[in-house]
From TrEMBL:
Matching Gene3D superfamilies: alpha/beta hydrolase
Signal peptide: 1-20
Organism: Marichromatium bheemlicum
UniProt keyword annotations, A-Z: Hydrolase, Signal
A GO term for molecular function: hydrolase activity
Domain of life: Bacteria
UniProt cross-references to InterPro entries, sorted A to Z: AB_hydrolase_fold
Name the UniProt record assigns to this protein: Alpha/beta hydrolase
Amino acid sequence: MRAIASLLALGVLLAGCATPGPGGGVTPGAPLRLYPGDGERRADLVVLGHGFLREQSTLAGLARTLAAAGVDCATLDFTAQRPWDGAHLRNGLAMIRVADRLGARRVVYVGFSAGGLAALVAARNDPRARGVVTLDLVDAAGLGRATAAALSVPLVGLVGEPGRCNAHNGARLVYAQAPRGRLERIAGAGHCDFESPTDPLCEMLCGEADPALGALVRARASAAVLGLLGPETSTSAE
């Protein structure tokens, strides 16, 4: 019975990482959490998207790291996802609505695993976007490649070692399609190292996380975000 449960859980975790389509609905005003920075970057915002069938608490560590660096950061729950449908397009629009709701003028979209697809969609369709950072991105039905090819802002992809939970780094083709794409490999990092915090389910299916590598991921992601936003400004009116 435990083996069956493990196989079902693996299917749930990987479904949004490999094959689901982009459909699905969005619940207006999906729950979000704001991690405020120090106020020096008024109207700058980072919006974080979690992995398939995960939830926003799995990116709280990165959100706190970004807030400590002075940037307002928001997380949200993707309410449209189902085990059979990743709803990546609708999730991207939900990320844009978070930026609307918080009155952002400049935005960097960040997403983990399948949440990276939502971040790509958001950056492609939001003129306020200054770039997108993906954390061990996994593509679905070519959506990432198609979106990256039409992306006018920089794409920074942080990736770990190949494994079943990141489709053996199959998303490398996404970065190759982006006109301003850059790939940064984090040696030794597994899929769960890109969540903060991760949990026993992810570790059971994808391998044990390493706290030191998780800290490195957060530092590199924060540096990428700050690089995309550029120097601090009191108005962020660009």
